What we know:
Layout: H1 3-25, H2 32-44, H3 55-66, H4 74-77
Amino acid sequence: MNKADQEQLKSLWFALRDTMIDQLKAEDTPKASFLNVVRQFLRDNGITLDSIGDPLAMQEALEKMTEDLPTYDDEEWKH
């Protein structure tokens, strides 16, 4: 693969990541199918809870990832 192709793939990866983050931060409740895409993206990139060896670092990483995400009332999930 030439360097131009690698740069294009890198740009595509970052665009996909940024789009997923923006969608997760949106006010609307995400659909299960979208959450599955995010889950698979994380898994494909080796991002799992057990990939962080230090439990405190894991907790900090999870808090950082979720601090800007919206929260949903239980009533919203019953629809």
